[in-house]
Amino acid sequence: MSTLTALARAQAWSVGTAQRLALVRHVHLAERPLVFVPLALAGEANAPLAAMVGDDPDSPRLLVVSQPRNRDQRFAFVAELAGVVVPYIEGFRSAAEEVPAGRDETRPRFLNAPQLVVPNQAGIGFVRLLGRSTRFRRTAGEFAVAPGVPVLGRWLTYLAERAEHPGSCLLLAATEALSRHWASGQSGVEDLNLAALVGWIAPPPGLTGAEAAVTAEDPVLSPPAGPATDPGFDNEVLEPLIEACSQAEGEAASARARAALQRALSGQLLPTWRLVWRALDLLRALPAGASVARRWDGDRDSFTAYDAYLRDTGLPQPRRDGAVAAARRLDWLERAQASYAAQQAFDDPLAMAEYRMTGEAFAGVVVKAEPDRLDHSGKRRRLRPLITVETADPVVAETGTVLTAVTRPAQSARVVSISAESADLTSTEDDAASGGVVRVVLELSGGMGRSLTAAPGSVPEVGEWLCYCSLTVDYQRPWVFPSAEETPWTHGGPPQPYVPADEDAVEEWS
């Protein structure tokens, strides 16, 4: 937890309502998201008990497994779920655009992409395990399942893997999205309860955030936000109803038992269903950050590529990545995380404030400018203006460090000198990092045109307020890894290509 987040949590507890951690929204919200609220049977490995799913807040669809330990009923549930989720996903394949893919080349990209919203991170875990448990299933022969089951499994596995990508919004957890934008007066673990977190952010009239959170701890008023169920509900309500479904004799008695179970499970799921849509409304009230659309373009690219893969081979994802594939994925995630952090800071002054506190960024006023300065050190003269920025922020950058201004991302600024204003006129970088008024001299390059005279407005003027930081949103070249065929023996040697086998269809549910 950062210093500012800790301060915001303390402030939230003091005033009784959540405090903003962001001035803009850092997640993309689809016009028609698919909300998925799952419930799993306690004591079983990801055994589905029920789910509420749909893209209309007023028309949820309830799916129930009356015998969660029965394999046939489990897969009937998954087949019914596939009948909702797969058409929703595939509905985004109807329209595409051509985007540049290199010199004189283009590639297709779907105009939109699906967005699955679950209540919390545990919901993402449920999606991941459900996908792993179903993507290898066969639609013919022994242990055959409905055709939509393995298709759903592959899409769920893809969405769960994509959720690991920083900034991706194809699979979104409501609690995580809210926690990124608000700090409650409770711990991060307590923020996993969607009802408590929404209570802190938007408490009911007459209640403080703390009082609303206490109310949310009552499982009768606010059932757990899935996929776990409340132990009291399990013992007192659920177990007798499941037993009644098992013991019912005759079609009429079975129908009554199933109806009673559905009513009970609907009562458990409906409050969370409404909370997820409430969370989306809270997030929609925030203006989208400047880089949100760019990240959604990346999601659309990924969705288009995976759809092409399914159309081409249709094979499920392997159980485990090979050594080279795992290394490439880790490198990709690390670069994506650094880029995502930089994008948030450039979009949001509150996010940038974290870096200003640590000295990785500073903000101040231009007090001197030499817009026509030329550099004669090379074979050719180059336009290299100097500006002096005065700041009260701590500065830890060293001479020679290249910085970027938030409002001028196409222009680089190299630190020429750092000096601290003091009574004895002593100037050291250690003084600059310790506080007080600091003057930073910067040499500018780029974004000023191609002549030896800067284009109007391309060089900051005296009096202009700027924020410089060491973060960059530029493309970072990936590390060069060997091909899969060149995997060294120390890492298992070249991986064997995946070949579907009969044992895939009998993989354990978990």
Task: Describe the SSE topology.
Elements: H1 3-15, E1 19-20, E2 34-40, E3 48-54, E4 61-64, H2 71-90, E5 96-100, E6 106-110, E7 116-118, H3 121-134, H4 148-163, E8 171-173, H5 174-181, E9 182-183, H6 194-201, H7 209-216, H8 231-247, H9 251-284, H10 292-312, H11 323-347, H12 349-358, E10 361-370, E11 374-375, E12 382-383, E13 386-391, E14 402-405, E15 408-420, H13 429-434, E16 438-445, E17 465-469
Parallel strand pairs: 2-7, 7-8
Antiparallel strand pairs: 1-9, 2-3, 3-4, 5-6, 10-13, 10-17, 11-12, 13-16, 14-15, 14-17, 15-16
Notable features of this structure?
510 residues; alpha+beta; Elongation Factor Tu (Ef-tu), domain 3; 2 domains; six-stranded antiparallel beta barrel; 13 helices; 39% helix
How many helical stretches? Answer: 13
Low-pLDDT segments: 423-434
Question: What proportion of the residues is helical, as a percent range?
Answer: 25-40%
**Largest β sheet strand count, sense and barrel closure:** 6 strands, antiparallel, barrel
Q: Give a count of the beta strands, DSSP E runs of length 2 or more.
A: 17
Distance from first to last alpha carbon: 33 Å
* Average pLDDT taken over every residue: 87
Count of separate structural domains: 2
The value of Rg in angstroms is 28 Å
Which class of secondary structure composition applies to the elements?
alpha+beta
> What is the ordering of alpha helices and beta strands?
HEEEEHEEEHHEHEHHHHHHHEEEEEEHEE
